[in-house]
């Protein structure tokens, strides 16, 4: 008799306990979300800025190599890093990452199609530079390098604040 009575009772207690845990879990998540989200967005701003600094470093290294008539395989390597970085570029500007220590203009989010197109033109320009360098053609590499530099500037005029 004792067993028959206590079985449904303990069953109820387990249900209540798991409901309480569920509610606690939900409250915990809700409490953490804003801080966690802000941190994630700070990270993505720092991440894209660090990547862009690396891109500047790539351009500098390429410029020096071309001026010194150096090894084009270095140019091929650096420009490949640019291709890969700019392929993933729009994803580094998720919704909500328009605040804080960013110099991105609101147009990055409000004119998304054009921003993505500008990133696509950068991928194309960096690919062209990579192919020219990989083929060993110094003149074509120099031309593609100037074009790539212009492509950085074109996006900055539209999407980067001073
Ligand atoms: C598709 C658009 C786009 C292209 C292409 C682009 N940039 Fe930018 N760049 C931006 C935006 C937007 C910012 C501002 C980012 C921020 O502060 O969140 C920026 C910022 C920068 C910064 C400042 C980073 C910092 O520390 O704050 C550097 C350096 C930079 N870009 C270099 C380059 C170079 C070099 C290229 C070409 C190889 C390039 N960018 C191509 C959009 C672009």
Walk me through the structure.
With 162 residues, the protein is mainly alpha-helical. It has a single domain, classed as Four Helix Bundle (Hemerythrin (Met), subunit A) (Up-down Bundle). Helix content is 81%, strand content 0%. The chain is built from 5 helices and no strands. The protein has helices spanning 2-67, 72-87, 107-110, 112-135, 138-159. Helix 2 (72-87) packs antiparallel against helix 4 (112-135). It is elongated. Bound molecules: heme C. Heme C binds at residues 45, 48-49, 52-53, 55-56, 59, 82, 89, 102-104, 108, 115, 118-119, 122, 151-152, 155-156, 159-160.
In short:
With 162 residues, the chain is mostly helical. It has a single domain (46-159), classed as Cytochrome c/b562 (Four Helix Bundle (Hemerythrin (Met), subunit A), Up-down Bundle).
Mean pLDDT: 86
Helix content: over 70%
What is the domain tally?
1
N-to-C terminal Cα separation, in Å? Answer: 80 Å
Stated plainly, the CATH topology is called: Four Helix Bundle (Hemerythrin (Met), subunit A)
Class inferred from helices and paired strands: mainly alpha
Which ligands occur here?
A: heme C
The biggest sheet amounts to: none
How many strand segments?
Answer: 0
What is the oligomeric state here? single chain
What is the count of DSSP helices, taking H or I runs of 4+ residues?
5
Order of helices and strands: HHHHH
Q: Point out poorly predicted stretches.
A: 19-32
